[in-house]
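yo

u said u wanted the structure for the complex thing, so here. seqs first:
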Amino acid sequence: MNLSGIISYPITPFTQDGKNIDFNALGLSLESLLEQGSDAIAPLGSTGESAYLSTKEWREVAEYTVKKVNKRVPVIVGISELTTEAAVENARFAQQVGADAVMVIPVSYWKLTELELFDYYQAISDAISIPIMAYNNPATSGIDMSPELLVKMFHQIPNVTMVKESTGDIQRMHKIKLLSEGKLPFFNGCNTLALEALCAGASGWCTAAPNLLGVAPKHLYEQVKAGELNKAQTLFYQQLPTLTFIVGVGIPKVVKAGLKLLGRDVGLARKPLGDITEQQQTQLKALIHQFVRGG
Amino acid sequence: MNLSGIISYPITPFTQDGKNIDFNALGLSLESLLEQGSDAIAPLGSTGESAYLSTKEWREVAEYTVKKVNKRVPVIVGISELTTEAAVENARFAQQVGADAVMVIPVSYWKLTELELFDYYQAISDAISIPIMAYNNPATSGIDMSPELLVKMFHQIPNVTMVKESTGDIQRMHKIKLLSEGKLPFFNGCNTLALEALCAGASGWCTAAPNLLGVAPKHLYEQVKAGELNKAQTLFYQQLPTLTFIVGVGIPKVVKAGLKLLGRDVGLARKPLGDITEQQQTQLKALIHQFVRGG
Amino acid sequence: MNLSGIISYPITPFTQDGKNIDFNALGLSLESLLEQGSDAIAPLGSTGESAYLSTKEWREVAEYTVKKVNKRVPVIVGISELTTEAAVENARFAQQVGADAVMVIPVSYWKLTELELFDYYQAISDAISIPIMAYNNPATSGIDMSPELLVKMFHQIPNVTMVKESTGDIQRMHKIKLLSEGKLPFFNGCNTLALEALCAGASGWCTAAPNLLGVAPKHLYEQVKAGELNKAQTLFYQQLPTLTFIVGVGIPKVVKAGLKLLGRDVGLARKPLGDITEQQQTQLKALIHQFVRGG
Amino acid sequence: MNLSGIISYPITPFTQDGKNIDFNALGLSLESLLEQGSDAIAPLGSTGESAYLSTKEWREVAEYTVKKVNKRVPVIVGISELTTEAAVENARFAQQVGADAVMVIPVSYWKLTELELFDYYQAISDAISIPIMAYNNPATSGIDMSPELLVKMFHQIPNVTMVKESTGDIQRMHKIKLLSEGKLPFFNGCNTLALEALCAGASGWCTAAPNLLGVAPKHLYEQVKAGELNKAQTLFYQQLPTLTFIVGVGIPKVVKAGLKLLGRDVGLARKPLGDITEQQQTQLKALIHQFVRGG
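structre next:
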């Protein structure tokens, strides 16, 4: 698996009462992301409110997404479970329904030691035969995996073949690059670091931004690859205020609110997450206006 | 409800294969905590691995504990759920089986705004008629509730009547005291802050320590209440190395390992949590030795 | 030297043009602090704007203070110098003019290793024969000395016999107590931690508060020593809003503004420090009102 | 003044007893930096131990450097003073002896408000007619100036025309760029962020690295400007371990130790700064070996 470019994160749309998944809206979301040039689709990530779904819902979304994307691009299914057993079961299920890879974040109530984290990934790797993208995002998961641990798992656990780094600390990427002698592909998961991560050698950008910014993230990626730094800077600084807003206010609720502003009602994020405020809606409208025209 | 003193946190014992709850061992644990002079029992807290249990298991532990304690002291059932819906359902269940109060920590994958946190507690309060202890522990939950928010909820949400503060920052307790004009009872949830929290006016100490330290925590509480500061200091500094060890290595696994060292096998913590190392076992043995003799 | 209680920090008054020291006002300040029951006087600390004085000014204040206090209580002269050479020279001068001890904070532009910090204190100790209070306050000095280092210096450097801990982290005091087996006297330098530090065994409270709060800090100290915890709590929570204000806005400028409000004009803090705002003056007036009446 | 590229920071060499400045060695250092392609020279920065010099020494170094560089490239003199008065005096002196600009960092014992910082820069600007580079480096100065403040000073204080950002947080540069609409030139002062800062639009890189790495930093700058990202990455990752070492161990002592390894004895850093350890010398030797050959 040789992944690069824009890995897009669909939201999980709910019906108006918030109780059921709106698969029709999910299908439209997936088609839209593919039209924007996504190089891979990653359902059930942070954006997809993975952690707030029941096991049954999670499985339905995984299965539906794989079928809908239908091999047009790779599908990387997100797993964020508290217990090893649940993570292993979900990983098995993802492989069974045809996922190309899983992206695993070790959510935890209690902090985990490096040994416990290693065993967690080892147990998942033992249960499947598709690649694992180790996903580090302490701001949401409460667990911080060092570059040293990530590279160690890459060397010692067969299916751990990629990393998604979301701390926003570029020095982590530097360390991964040096420690693995450039062999461990790393992806950027911090939207406001996109330009620099790509310049530092990230293989791609994992992002929910294409939901609202259309082809703009893909264009940024392409200009960096072409060495057109001035154009890349222009594109990045155009997107930055919107990226900052999305991240600052909260990805799922902003993306859902933004899609509604764009005429596509996908329901609200699941409680305790609420809706964005009216003032934030006004700000968001102004921010995404330019991208709609250009998109 | 006029709660004070030592609120003890039982572990949730598992069978050797880790798959089932060992209710016999749970019963022994509860009896032991009552014998040590616990002023209340709080099952399904952080110590009880609440977050790692299935809904069915969680309910069985809640029901079993209430029955076993049988009104000898109040039972405060811990709730740590990602979605509002699950928290409300568990709170209703706790009340239904006879819990005296619930202790609620707003675990979350995404950060929550103050409004979202308020609504979360409001929804739970609306569903029950027993007191709620709002539990702030950002190190495990990823969410930090300010003293301002806690006091606001105390004033505006009927059943929010107590706070458990576990940040370890004594200034939070100062603020709660000043902002509520001394009316909001706060409990200390940071073991290594026990002496100072009690001296600053905490109503009690929420702790798993009695599982391993027997009556020592209760004695500390009593000496502070008696104004015997020198004796309280002596007791606190005796317990401090053990408290530091328990917190530093991780409460459920250390308490379980300690109970095994004391001759009571309660299984391991649930994966991804592992066992403590052999070196840690040696340290723990030395630490708890003195309290066993004294207990 | 067996120091305990309230160690008071005088400001360094300037003339109206800010260029010269107003020794008359300094004398009045010292007398006032002695009247409030200070157990020691510490000129040229953070409060005394030590870092903003020329070498000549610093020496004049040291000499003047020792003479004025005239052995009524111990005088502990503060030293905050960037280079070892300047610190050694000032320490020698302080001893020569009759200081009872020096309080040394290793201000530095570059971070220092533990070895460099040790050598710094060693060099000062070698140059004098009076006690050194090692002063840790990373918020102002940029250098954080661990409890381990402080206890090591206490054991290995002859004149290092006391510690002033100003991080506000009570766990530092716990560690100093345990590591030194209760033998290293530690003083609290964080005003808003006064109650708890004293309850945890601090020998005293190093504070500028008596400048504005009169005998109130001394009363708090006495009630803790008497085991009158309820009274101590009442006194502490009465003083806490004012202590929080003083620390939050900045000690020298608040103390100087407060003294002016009390009818004693001691000039402004030296630039770049400015005056407090009008709004802050109104707040400060309300805060210190109660203590003036009582004082 | 249209500054860009590599702004090199000379050390301040001392004689073997550490008491005097070795101007001969300083001259050789300056010539060497000019030979490596430096686009500007910045004496008396952090690297130059500015904070540890007497006023007399500081002035001699400023004057000597301007004369020695003799208009071959701009000279930007560093000012790091605690009081406004001393900063103003040094700025005046720098202009008088022919400096092209001053770089000002508001070192302080007490934290400063935004108003106090603004007034500090305003007072310096009022005293001179050459450009001021506002230098933000909270790790050494203890004061953190927000992008909002920096841009405000750029708009409102005539001589503040450039910023050196050394927090290592690329988001600060993003904000400066957006808030000033690209008009405020910013320079990177965090060595391990050099690649990304230049890619994000930094006008140049302020660095002591050319002292040990020769032309390598200049080459990195040139490749980024040419849009040769792959080459720039290769150059950056080659330099990164050495940059990390220099910053981690401490710039002045590592640069001085490195120069000695290269055959140029410039004395030690001034106490309390010590020498690097033998183990560090071995590491440093290995690190700089490759650049010596290439340089």
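The longest strand of chain B covers residues 160-165. The first helix of chain B runs from residue 23 to 35.
cya
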